[in-house]
Specification:
This protein is α/β, with parallel strands linked by helices. It has nine helices and eight strands. It has two domains: 1-104 and 160-231 and 279-289, Glucose-6-phosphate isomerase like protein, domain 1 (Rossmann fold, 3-Layer(aba) Sandwich); 105-159. Helices cover 48% and strands 12% of the residues. The strands form two sheets. Strands 5-4-6-7-8 form a five-stranded parallel sheet, with helices on both faces. A three-stranded antiparallel sheet has the order 1-3-2. Strand 2 (34-38) and strand 3 form a beta hairpin.
Length: 289
Amino acid sequence: MALSQAELVKALVDAGVHFGHRVSRWNPKMQPYIHGKRNNIHIIDVRETVKGLLRAKKLIQNTVASGKDVLFVGTKRQARHAVEEEAKRCGMHYVCERWLGGTLTNFRTIRLRLTRLEELEKLWETGAIENYSKKMKSTLGREKDKIKANLEGVRTMEKMPGLMFIVDTRREHIAVKEAKKLGVKTIALIDTDSDPDPIDLPVPGNDDAMRAIEVIVRELADAVIEGKTGRGVNEAKGEERQTPRKRSSRAQFAAGPGDSGDSDSLAPETAGAIATIEPPAETVAAATA
């Protein structure tokens, strides 16, 4: 169930999304997102967090509605469970165990490893594994478990994702570089010790709090589900546009030179993916007090 903006702000503050790192560990590029400091701990501006989260939801919704997929990345202990559960709930791809170098830039090799995983699983399904020695069965079992742990989340990913959400860009710096190299748009939950420049849409917040990560990932998963609803509507409209209208021979000759046909009934182009959405100032002020 979607939360109102007031409920979202309260949930974020209760989860501790506004707590940053120690002052000595900060990145000066995060200055615009910092509200102040208390006990040598930076306090993140919740207004900026909510603003970034609402923009991220809008971008994800438009991206999914256009037919592209989202890849969720979070391999740190605090984010693994939330990333895996919410990605499965919304039917998107995820990486929660380890980001293998070349997951995007060398995707052909990744697909080969997934093909190998299917071959190994087929051995167990058909019972052919019983023809191997005990030592070989153990070796093949470890290989299967290792591939499945690292690549289970991208098993159904047949093409490059249109968008990638990352938790902790310092830890996932290889994923950020690969996305930037291939032109994949990125949304990231970044703390006060991170660099927001390589990220297309940063969401400032505490990337070490499990509850904060769960709230943000759940909101983004809800945006994916809403985008899938729009994807079905867009596909239906596309089929209607592609189906030619049947006209009699008399109607063809009766059409005047100024007849515009179906052009007037076409839907206008979708607005920009990143919309500036201002949260209620009084709500945020009350939550951050």
